[in-house]
Amino acid sequence: MKILITGGHMSPALAVIDEIGSRADIIFVGKKYDPENEKTFALEYREVAKKNVLFYNLQTGRLTRLFNFKSFINLLKIPLGFYQALRILIKEKPNSILSFGGYIGFPVCLIGFLLKIPVYIHEQTSKPGLTNRITGLLAKKIFISFEETKKYFSPEKIIASGNPVRKSVLKVSKKPFNFLKNKPVIYITGGSLGSHSINNKIKEILPGLLEKYIVIHQTGSRIIKNILPDKLKTTYFPREHFFADEIGYIYSISDLVIGRSGANTLFELIAWKKPAILIPLPWSANQEQLGQAEIFQKSGTGEIFDQNNESKNLLNLVDKVLSDIDNYKNNFKNVELFYKKNAAQTIVQTLLSSIIS
């Protein structure tokens, strides 16, 4: 049996790869190189390569609302993506295709559909993007994370699997830091690539945070430790990236998380029962991040901070949440139903049983 996995949401894809294990051969189609630096391997390639999964680099373009030279080059790459997808599928002959959304998966799913290979998709967010809405028309089954997503797809195709969370994230294994926890710990993240706007906010209030708290900061490409007085450097731990086997430890010691409100972050926070201050990405498709952040705010497990708000107000909000942290933790009983522990198992069992039958 052979399963091809593709798409833009890496965390649930990695969870499914782990669940499949040795029960089927896996092929991954994605971006091998960082779009901003083509000499650097992309994070998805590094993560997949660690699992000894065969990786195919797909060079394809995407449609954008802006038209400039870069978007023009993007358009020219779209036919190349379909051609490469055709070559990969003819060569590998997978029994099924599982896509986790995003423009990278569309040519694979469309060509797969035309070759009569069963296509499955997973929708991570509460409001599906354009790619998954179109691919949903081709899919045999559609796995969803939120109940409200049902209205966007054909009812007979839907399986409410939940969002797979990587097992490595849920356990403490590798410790990237060793320190005495004598203050509350704040974990700040902008996602796998960091966030320029979040980093700027934190830079402005970092001395104030470090007077009271220990800060673990996933900074993307921005390292700001060298601006600090020596006395504060001992409680500030910046890293460009945390790998999957490190995140569990970070969550385990954190009292509060500050970050974007992507679906994967949301489910990891629920799994760990970690209160959060969520800063929704303003230009996320269909305002999906705002909708997901509102789930936390309404349930009493977190707060929303607008990235256009003043930095000093973020510092005040941190103080407010941490002064009442036990109440926020107790409110996780209001969101437990969102998290389905067997999400990856449900997806894999569906794929394997379909292939066998």
From TrEMBL:
BP term (GO), one: peptidoglycan biosynthetic process
GO CC entries: plasma membrane
UniProt organism field: Candidatus Roizmanbacteria bacterium RIFCSPLOWO2_01_FULL_35_13
Keyword annotations: Cell cycle, Cell division, Cell membrane, Cell shape, Cell wall biogenesis/degradation, Glycosyltransferase, Membrane, Peptidoglycan synthesis, Transferase
Reactions the enzyme catalyzes: di-trans,octa-cis-undecaprenyl diphospho-N-acetyl-alpha-D-muramoyl-L-alanyl-D-glutamyl-meso-2,6-diaminopimeloyl-D-alanyl-D-alanine + UDP-N-acetyl-alpha-D-glucosamine = di-trans,octa-cis-undecaprenyl diphospho-[N-acetyl-alpha-D-glucosaminyl-(1->4)]-N-acetyl-alpha-D-muramoyl-L-alanyl-D-glutamyl-meso-2,6-diaminopimeloyl-D-alanyl-D-alanine + UDP + H(+)
Residue ranges constituting the Glycosyltransferase family 28 N-terminal domain according to the UniProt record: 6-144
Enzyme class: transferase
Xref: SUPFAM superfamilies: UDP-Glycosyltransferase/glycogen phosphorylase
Topology with respect to the bilayer: Peripheral membrane protein
Protein name: UDP-N-acetylglucosamine--N-acetylmuramyl-(pentapeptide) pyrophosphoryl-undecaprenol N-acetylglucosamine transferase
Classification of source organism: Bacteria, Candidatus Roizmaniibacteriota
Biological role: Cell wall formation. Catalyzes the transfer of a GlcNAc subunit on undecaprenyl-pyrophosphoryl-MurNAc-pentapeptide (lipid intermediate I) to form undecaprenyl-pyrophosphoryl-MurNAc-(pentapeptide)GlcNAc (lipid intermediate II).
Residue stretches making up the Glycosyl transferase family 28 C-terminal domain: 185-346
One GO MF term: undecaprenyldiphospho-muramoylpentapeptide beta-N-acetylglucosaminyltransferase activity
Entry annotated with the keyword Glycosyltransferase: yes
Gene3D superfamilies to which the protein is assigned, alphabetical: Glycogen Phosphorylase B
Superkingdom classification of source: Bacteria
Known EC number: 2.4.1.227
Residues annotated as binding UDP-N-acetyl-alpha-D-glucosamine: T6, G7, G8, R166, S192, Q289
Subcellular compartments: Cell membrane
InterPro entries: GlcNAc_MurG, Glyco_trans_28_C, GlycoTrans_28_N
